[in-house]
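Lab notes, practical 5.
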Amino acid sequence: MQIIKNESIDQIKARIRQQTSKTSDPLVESRVTNIIKTVREKGDIALRAYAEEFDHVSLDELKVSAEQIDLAVKNVDPAVIRALEKAAVNIRSFHQLELQQSFEDSPRSGVTRGTKVTPLSAVGIYVPGGTAAYPSSVLMNALPAKIAGVKNIIMVTPPQKNGLNDAVLVAARIAGIDSIYQVGGAQAIAALAYGTESIPQVDKITGPGNAYVATAKRAVFGQVAIDMIAGPSEIGILADESARAKDVAADLLSQAEHDSNARAILITNSEKLAQAVSDEVNVQLSTLPRAAIARDAIDNNGFIYLVDTIDNMIDLMNAVAPEHLEIQLENAYDYINKIQNAGSVFLGKYASEPLGDYLAGPNHILPTGGTARFSSALGVWDFQKRIQYLYYSKDALLDDINDVTVLAREEGLEGHARAIEIRQS
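Output from the prediction step:
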């Protein structure tokens, strides 16, 4: 890994901004626009045609049957099922704490204000089906929606020549997903956003995907809500001399193996640790099954920043705003309140990032590409909406008439003022 030292904090921040700057691909955007238009016009016919063109699968039925899921349950190793069920318990118990409550107050006689919290009616979950299948992502997307009270959860996933991944189907059953469709790519996003003969329109689409999926989600936003535009996976680690190089290197590679565009960043005040981690990454890469992918990520987006103080380390990491942040410092818990920007934080040398990916309970659908500066992990709140309400008695209205009309006329909206004044009589 490249070790960056003898640079000022401002120089490093400029480097980080350059690394996270986003550019769109005009060719992808053009293709996605055409796919969305075609799905809107032709519905299921288009979805089947795209399955043949992109996935090389001929489909009689888009919807996955209960019998297919029953067979998947029989095919999956019982140990995997037990692990998914344990993960589901932990995810439910964590996200149950996020439930938002309706509220109401009466600040004075004749006035009642409130907010009613209500679930979305229908949600679409996109589950990738390319180089790797992620049953854990099924749980992470669906369980918060279930807790929120969503009545109709629809899963879409690309069709596969040899059938859908059994563990993904088992996870869908554990999570209580209502229906599953064999549709992938931008066409799946279009189907969820606008509806087809088979696939109902949803209120929100969640879940990660490739550049076509991300571009399609951006294109349909406004027609439906989306969770976020997910980019390549990333990890940031804050570590001092108390950290073990083997642990740090392993955790950096745990994200680098996802994608050749993944980011792996270590910020430390120990030159000895920096060099040891760089060396250890090379050692561990030699035996990693996905070494080619991980090496590309490390060579292109792997950096070790050497700075002088822990305060500067934290300042820089807040500029990175990583998807996953590990704090491998002495007394790691002492630093949580200094973290402003991160998707999910892992405290101490034993809280390795894969715990969050699979089992512990916090969600692994997280903001990437520096967007943790302004967005958060997927949660129950993503599947609820808030409806405000207001009641006034006549006496309460009379008390406020002058202030409302003054403000309305200040903004040049005479109709607003008259709508209030007419109620005096």
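Observations recorded by the TA: Residues 18 and 361 are 33 Å apart (CA to CA). The chain has 16 helices and 14 strands.
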